[in-house]
């Protein structure tokens, strides 16, 4: 049994690959890498085939995260094989739920920051693309906090599937 998580942002070069990298590291640290697969995609094809933004790579490397990445577009057919589809902001959430053919697929779509109890009412991870490096650092901090809660939720789902 494999549990599959896919993070989705706009172009799959900033927020979603950042979340993919952080969450993969959390999964490895937890010893769950043999049962949890982590991936990312975008809602649009503007950067398809490209590596992550250099600023994303820079802040990830600075914090010790690894990323081997090629941007791609989320395909509706993926819902069938995914357990969770994690949107980075409410725009992505709406777009992904619109792509979901059935309610069961729409229920798989969640906002990343909904897993951060300290997030408050603003559950969007802001797009750092048009700003400076500090926006990428802020984004990474949000992602790291939310990935801790997401890992707890995935653990609970896995335990529920095993019982």
Automatic annotation (TrEMBL):
> What is this enzyme's EC?
3.1.3.48
Q: Which GO terms describe its molecular function?
A: protein tyrosine phosphatase activity
- What does it catalyze? O-phospho-L-tyrosyl-[protein] + H2O = L-tyrosyl-[protein] + phosphate
Keywords, in A-Z order: Hydrolase, Protein phosphatase
Q: Which residues form the active site?
A: 9 (nucleophile), 15, 127 (proton donor)
Give the matching Gene3D superfamilies. Answer: 3.40.50.2300
Q: Does the keyword Hydrolase apply?
A: yes
Q: Which SMART domains match?
A: LMWPc (SM00226)
Read off the Pfam families from this record: LMWPc
**UniProt keyword Hydrolase present:** yes
* Source taxon at top rank: Bacteria
Which residues are in the Phosphotyrosine protein phosphatase I domain?
3-153
Q: What CDD domains does this protein map onto?
A: LMWPTP
| Matches recorded under InterPro entries | LMW_PTPase, Ptyr_pPase, Ptyr_pPase_sf, Tyr_phospatase_low_mol_wt
Q: Would you identify the family this protein belongs to, as annotated?
A: Belongs to the low molecular weight phosphotyrosine protein phosphatase family.
This protein's name: protein-tyrosine-phosphatase
Organism name: Streptomyces phaeofaciens
Gene name in the database record = ptpA
């Amino acid at each position: 049994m494999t549990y599959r998580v896919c993070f989705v942002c706009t172009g799959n070069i900033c927020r979603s690959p950042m979340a993919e990298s952080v969450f993969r590291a959390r999964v490895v640290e937890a010893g769950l890498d043999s049962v949890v697969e982590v991936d990312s995609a975008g809602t649009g094809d503007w950067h398809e085939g490209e590596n992550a933004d250099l600023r994303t790579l820079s802040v990830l490397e600075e914090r010790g995260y690894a990323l081997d990445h090629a941007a791609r577009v989320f395909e509706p057919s993926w819902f069938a094989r995914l357990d969770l589809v994690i949107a980075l902001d409410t725009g992505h959430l709406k777009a992904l739920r619109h792509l979901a053919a059935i309610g069961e697929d729409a229920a798989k779509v969640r906002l990343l920051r909904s897993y951060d109890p300290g997030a408050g009412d603003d559950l969007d991870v802001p797009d750092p693309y048009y700003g400076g490096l500090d926006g990428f650092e802020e984004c990474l901090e949000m992602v790291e906090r939310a990935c801790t809660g997401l890992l707890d939720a995935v653990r609970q789902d896995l335990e529920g599937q095993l019982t």
